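FAQ
Q: What does a multi-component entry look like?
A: The components come first, one per line:
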Amino acid sequence: MAGELNLCRERLEGALPRKVEEISGQNPYACYQCGKCSAGCLFADHMDVLPNQVIRLVQLGDEGVAAFRAPWVCAACLACAVRCPRGVDIGKVMEALRVLALRRGLTPAPLNLGERYPQIALVGAFRKFTP
Amino acid sequence: MKRVAYFPGCALKDQARGYEAGAKKALEVLGYELVELSRWNCCGTVYALAQDDLVRHLGPVRNLVRTQEMGLDQLVTLCAMCYGTLRRSQRFVEEDEERLSRIRAFMDEEQEYAGGVKVLHLLNLLRDEIGFEPLESKVTRPLEGLKVGAYYGCMLLRPRDVGVDDPDRPEVMERVLGALGATPVLFPERTECCGAYLTVARPDVVQARSERILASAKSSGADVVVTSCPLCQFNLENRRPAWAAGLPVVYLGEVLAWALVQGATVPEEIQARIGKPAEVKA
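Then the predicted structure of the entire assembly, as tokens:
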């Protein structure tokens, strides 16, 4: 069973975690998958992958993470950010994934514009859902 | 009368006009004049969390420049979202000299932003500058018997370094309500998000959140829910389930005016709770 096991960051990480770190200012490798973010997330019920799984996919450099719905269901309420024992602002990681998708021309589900909304709702939504 | 610069934001001129009117009159009673910025622009409503997107901080910084032009160094907001966005942008551009100089270079038609404008929420003003005891001494219509659930939502409390109080166990709104003679009611969802701007993308999600928040306040015994966020107010009022119709969601400024301002319009259902006539003598 000979063979070298080398788990240094340089060999593991792909372009995605570097890009996410650049946009978010957060080190995705600081996360040790305790799951506290997902346990307290009010929107996790509506996500296809949980917040801690989103971080794991980023750690693994899985570009498929851009296609998940989770970052678009995140309301940037920052409950996860104030609770993370490793100081990872997961809200910023979610924002990085939204921003990356929008910059790459991927669009989230259409907005429901058939109703009257106050400006505060529209400006907020346009800022998060359009490039 | 102490003058402080005031940033209203969109909602305070539209669906939250009652909040502005109430807060202004109540602050006059407390010796503060809110002086609206002569020109102001949208704060952006949501703080840009991306670190490489400096352009999104221009709007907030322009409002800080307007404050500086008035010769003042404090900028007061009533809206929780404006507070979060302005305060965070101010910190973001000032904590890094390079960012600040890029911002300055980008808007060189403006007076150079010197830095140091302190963004305050109405609650900061009430707690840190006015104080709970002086507040209590100015009450002319104590809200005795009124059980009020203070709903903080997100932007008043998170992130920790910007929040007006402890993000998990805040007490500032309860202290204010107590000073006004009301009975503050704690409820488990008071610091949990309503879904904010998701109301435009996922009304179903916001409906589920609003239902949960109102159920929590109602089962804890609240007669009324008070907030300082116009988006929370919109979501709780417009995405609420039918059974929660009797639980009004009002603005902090309105509640302040009920207790402090003579001749303030007190809604009938509130009047009935506090058992005080609409006009009381000082």
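Q: Is there any commentary attached?
A: Sometimes. For this entry: Chain B has a mean pLDDT of 95.
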